Amino acid sequence: MFPRFRFADDFWADEEAEQIVLSELGVRIFKAFSDFNPKPIAAASLGQVHVAALRDDRQVIVKIQRPDIRKQIATDFEALAQIADFLDAHTEFGRRYRFVTTLEEFRVTIQQELNYEREAQNLVMLAENLKEFENLRVPQPVPDWTTRSVLTMDYVQGRKITALSPLTRLDLDGKPLAEELVKAYLKQIMVDGMFHADPHPGNVFLTDDNRIALLELGMVGHIAPALQENLLKLFIAVGEEYSETAADIVIQISQATEDFKSVEFHRHIAQIMALQQNQSLENLNAGKSLMKVSRAAIDSGLWVPSELTLLGKTLLQLDEIGKIIDPTFDPFASIRRNVTGLMARRAKKTLTPGMIFSSLLEMKQFIAGLPGRCNRLMDALTHSELEIRVKPVDTKMLVEGFQKIANRITAGIILASLILGAALLMQVQTRFRIFGYLALAILCFLGAAAGGVWLLFTIFFQDEKIKKKKKP
Question: Is-contact 194 216, C-beta < 8 A?
Fold first, then answer.
């Protein structure tokens, strides 16, 4: 089948690779596998992949992690953290995109990818979640030969989606495959709450029996139940080109910064929807539209949840696969066709006996306490004890604003008093004169004029500063 394992020039760090397998599995390669191809069929920065066979002649894939890769990545992240700290502290771009937070999320993702035992768990869980889809396949791990640095799993006979020849695409009935793939991902996102987050064409195979195999489960996304329904509403709004609804949903699930510009954000979303409406079917891309919405939100001063960005990237890759399988594939139409069933499944998932019993208990407590609350409310109204407390967003800012208004009003009253006083003093005849005019009246007029000039200068100067701060 394959030549027995031998150290070859194209295999990085021969002794180290053998040592990794020995230290992780506890046996040498030729003891664990009956055959092992020393030439890797794929290699990346984290590790490389070999074809092998177990003792029962079952063909498998063996991923071996590069030596000292965890230490190298930790060193790289330390350097990147210093750069991110500097950008967040000293640049407007950094404060808007929050590089420290983004880098931390990326570090957690890389750590998960480095743990092959977690990837094996993801393979098992995803296969269980997608068992109803007959045209999809998820290779399963071999637990006895899987550790943190070595992953052994089923060998998938097939080709990469990108390696399909034009003749193969003509013979392939891609429409049902693309439809089932989108439906499976919508189920992962909206029902299961866990989805394969790295479906780029290199990780998606077309098997020899014309099924789709999903590989590389090191990167998965998790979506909380509270966010799932809002994301489903956002998909529908983007697909139906409801710009106002889409913008409102993004604002609801995001965190607004002090510089958030609501009007500008709504205008950007309307422009995205208008451009989408004018695109041909071949150029429609749900992931690209979602990424544009996320970018517009960030540029307008919103901090969107990382799940939205990861989901946009996933759908972007998924759209590319759908176009390869079926060039006439419409992702938005597929979402509309499957949304009703997804909503029903979500409702069914939440209506478990435990959730129903919990809701009944909360209703019982509410009804039992309702008469007492009504009595207290009526007593407060009867004795004029009802108070309404308003908590402003920024009390300090409001107080400073009121003080500025009061100061300007006071200054205006004083200046008006000086002018009136000067007019009255013009009737008082004295020998003390300035330029032939009564001195006291002239002094009051000059003081009022100087004060008026100072007040106008202060008003215009401060207003100009405020305008400059508001400009992006």
Answer: no
What's the angle, vertex CA 316, arms to CA 315 and CA 319, rounded to 5? 80
Token readout for 223 is 């979506």
Mean pLDDT of 51-72: 90
CA neighbor of 208 nearest in space, from 282, 161, 157:
157
| 207 C-beta neighbours (distance < 10 Å), count | 15
Query: Would you state the structure tokens that stand for residue 247, as one six-digit string?
Result: 């913008």
More confident residue, 250 or 3: 250
Nearest Cα residue to 63 out of 96, 36, 99, 98: 36
For residue 322, which of 185, 455, 435 has the smallest C-alpha distance? 185
pLDDT of 437: 65
Task: Quote the DSSP letter at residue 448.
Answer: H
Report whether pLDDT(411) > 60: yes
Q: Are the C-beta atoms of residues 275 and 324 closer than 8 Å to each other?
A: no
Q: Using one digit for the tens of pLDDT, what is the confidence trace for 273-312?
A: 887 775 654 556 777 888 888 889 988 889 888 888 888 8
Residue with tokens 């006979």: 157
- Residue 213 has φ and ψ, to the nearest 5°, of -110, 130
Note whether 299 and 94 are within 8 A (CB). Answer: no
Mean pLDDT of 315-337: 82
Cβ atoms of 94 and 103 closer than 8 Å: no
pTM summary value: 0.69
Domain ranges across the chain:
70-110, 157-351, 395-470
Here the tokens at position 25 are 């599995």
C-alpha distances in Å from residue 451, one per residue of 182, 325, 402, 416, 444: 72, 77, 21, 10, 10
CB-based burial, 181-204: b 16+ in 10 Å, e otherwise:
bbbbbbbbbbbbbbbbbbbbebbb
Could you tell me the two tokens for 209? 């029996």
Residue of 226, 295, 297, 193 lying closest to 255 (CA atoms): 297
Residue 225 has pLDDT above 50, yes or no: yes
- Taking the C-alpha atoms of residue 245 and residue 233, their distance in angstroms, rounded to an integer, is 9
The CA distance from 140 to 126, in Å, is 10
Quick check: 336 pLDDT over 80? no
